[in-house]
Structure formats: C-alpha cells, structure tokens
Amino acid sequence: MESKRNRTSVVVSEFEGTLLKHHDLFPYFMLVAFEASGLFRFTCLLLLWPLVAFLCLLGAEGSALKLMLFVTMVGMKISDIETVARAVLPKFYMDDLDLEGWRLFQTYGRRIVVTSCPRVMVEMFVKDHLRADEVVGTELEINKYGYLTGRLKNVGVRALPVDGEWLPDMGLGRKTSTSSFLSLCKEIRQLPFITTDDYRQDHPSPVIFHDGRLVLRPTPPTALIIILWIPFGIFVAFVRITVGLILPMSIIPYVIRIFGGDIIIKGTPPPPPIKGKSGVLFVCTHRTLMDPVVLSMVLARQVSAVTYSLSRLSEILSPIPTIRLSRDRRMDSEKIQNELSKGDLAICPEGTTCREPFLLRFSALFAELTDRIVPVAMNYRVGFFHPTTARGWKAMDPIFFFMNPRPVYEVTFLNQIPAEATCSAGKSAHDVANYVQRILASTLGFQCTDLTRKDKYKVLAGNDGTVGSRKPARANKLGSILR
C-alpha cells in the first residue's frame, strides 16, 4: 500500500548526506577546481580547508560554502563548470550514493532534490541517473563579460516551489539537517532509511561514460597525498618511459616490476607469424591508448596497430607501427588486409576507450576481413590518475599512466575463434563481432552494450553544451546488455 501511495505523491529530499552518504561538499569543489582549472587552484583550495573546517565547526556552513565557491569558481566560464558537472562529477556522486535513500526516493511520483551546491553541479546527475524531476539549488552570478564572480544569486532552499495550496508529501533528510524545507513537508523521514522488498532490486541508471584525471574522491588527506606525489610522479614517469624506449620490448615485462609497474599475463599467446602467411588479427578491448603497445611488449615483438583519431605527435612517439584509418569502409578494408598480409595486426573495434566495466559496440569490419581472430581481454589498474581522457592533449595520456605509484596492466589471451564461428562459415559480420564482444566481456566480468563512440562524446559534450538541455541520453541506459 505504501509503495502504491508513494507513486502518486511528492517527495523532497536533501542531496548531501541523504541521497549521498556524505554531506561534506569539499571533495566535489576540489574536483571542479582540479578538472576545470588545474593544480594551482586545487592547491589553493586545499590550503584553505582548515578555515573551511573551522567555519563548519562554528556552525557557519553558509560562510564555508561561499568561501569554497569563490576560490573554486571566480574567473571561470559557466561552460567550464557545466563540462565538469556533465563528465566528471556523476561518477563520484554515484560512488557516494546511498542506495536505500534513493530506493525510497524513487518510489514517489514527483521527485524534487534540494542541494546546497550550485544547481549546475548537481542537476545533470540527479535528473539523468536518479530520475529526479526538479532540482533546487543555488544559482551562480555571472558578470557582463561572461565570467563567474564567485558569488551566489540566491540560497537554494528559499527557491523551493511551495505555496499555501501545495506542500510536499514527504521530506527526506538526515537527523543533523538544518534545512528549513523539511518543516514544509507533511511527513518527514530521516536516516537510516529502510526500504521494502517491492523496490529493493531497483538500481539507478549507471554511469558508463565519465572523464577527468583523478581516480580517487579528493578528500583533504587524499588531495594532500596527490599533491605531494605529483613532483615525484613526474620524475618516475620520465624514468619509466625512458627505460621503455631504450630497452628491447622482449625484456620489458621482466624489468618493469623494478620500476613499480607490473604486467599480468594470462592465457597462451599465438606463435609469431610465418613468413608468407597471413597474420593473426588481435581483437582487443580498448581501455587506454597504450593497449597495442602493451600487447607488443607481452608478445616480445612489434605488432602494428590500427588507429582512428590518434594525434600526430602520439604516432611519432609510438614505439610500434600505427595504421591510421579514414573511416571510409572500402579504404580501411584495403589497409587492414594489406597489413595482415605482412603479419599480425591489433585492432580495438570499440573505436574509443571506456573506463567502466562495459564494452561498447564492436564495429563489424574486422570480422569481414579474416577468419584468424584472437580475442585479447585487456584491463588496467591505477591509483591516482586515469591514463585517458576525452579532453586535453592526448600525448599526455601515457605520462599520466606512468605517474601512478603502481600501474598494472592485465592481458588475457583467449583461444583463436573457431572457423565455424567466423564469416568463412557463413556467419554474418555482426554476429561474429557480437560473439567476440560477449566472450571478452565474460572474461573481464564486464557487460556488453550497443553504445558507440558517438554516444560517448554526446554524453561527455552534451548536445548543445548546456546542462539539462539534452534529452535523457541513450548512453545512460544499457542499450542491448548481454546481447
């Protein structure tokens, strides 16, 4: 009865400390500072943390919020904040989500979220992933030149749309909440929430695509460690890259542990190609730009790699041959077949990287060109910095990977696809591509989707560059999961 009643009612919930487990906003402002501005503003905000904490201790949370907001955003463009809110923050919000609170929240018909943050930082996440209808938060002040002043237009709770004829049926908050909107609700529930079995299995829409360099939520201790590590990490990255360029590929997997890294090899790789015979096509999952390089290290020989949008500088610095495709099907087919006639070739049919445990739709082109297909499941583990981003200078990606204290790559060779499962046996190219995608996903414990490179950049960039302007993104759903 309760579940049925809730679906025709209105709920208003706090975001911090209720839908999110933690009510501390500081890490999210640190993320905005790092991703939208850089290390200098990130460091300045961290240096002010003791003052922020002291203000909160005195009960002056409003003053602490204004201080964080001013240091983080003054002088920025609103588009900078929107980009981070769209491409970076959702992953960290999702990791901090209180599932019991969300499961209760989503059973109501109309769902409103109240946040102390600027609305732009929260709106995309709660609407696209938590299925909220409305977000009430503070608004940022912009000067006549289009830059943020670091001040607020209004306090979010004052903007709660209530009047004498309409009051929310339910208010969700924490016991220590000071939000005045709770007093406007007909009924109040405070943490901890206990949900019923009727909706216990519900899950929010997953975050499949996200961007940004930081792996960990930058709490003050974590942020301090990252800042202290960066100078040493740059030196370590320089040493690792130099050693990798000097030493023969055949011995790198054995000496890499001396420099803090590791390559874990599973399965049995095929033997080197025989002269005069067509090579093997290694079909790899696409985790970072270095997948083909690591594959060559494991095989102890240079394996040419197909690329789509690699920068010219990255091609010049690449320790293995690269073949740039044009996305013209006929021309690309000829290039791939020509390279296979010379020896082995590596290809990543997803066409772009994906950090989360999902595989994007595989382009079927590779399945049409050869029946000598060896799937290779590739994955990586890092501690501080993601090695690949959709924004910025691509040549920096390997540097960030090697800046991690202990970068680890996992390479799993699967058996060559049997002839009866290839196009030579009458299978369609799409069936072969889907089959390869499924067995690679199963090996890694990932899920298959029918999302593509275009979906990724649509989510990360938005349709017209504004938060809340796009329709619910197809890439926020799982497409054809486990086809």
From TrEMBL:
Transmembrane segments: 39-60, 223-247
Family matches, as CDD domains: LPLAT
Signal sequence residues: none
Pfam families: Acyltransferase, HAD_RAM2_N
Membrane topology: Multi-pass membrane protein
Cellular localization per UniProt: Membrane
Record bears the keyword Transmembrane helix: yes
GO molecular function, a single term: glycerol-3-phosphate 2-O-acyltransferase activity
Residue ranges constituting the Phospholipid/glycerol acyltransferase domain according to the UniProt record: 280-381
Swiss-Prot/TrEMBL GO biological process terms: cutin biosynthetic process
GO cellular component: membrane
Family recorded in the similarity comment: Belongs to the GPAT/DAPAT family.
Stated name of the protein: Glycerol-3-Phosphate Acyltransferase
Organism: Zostera marina (Eelgrass)
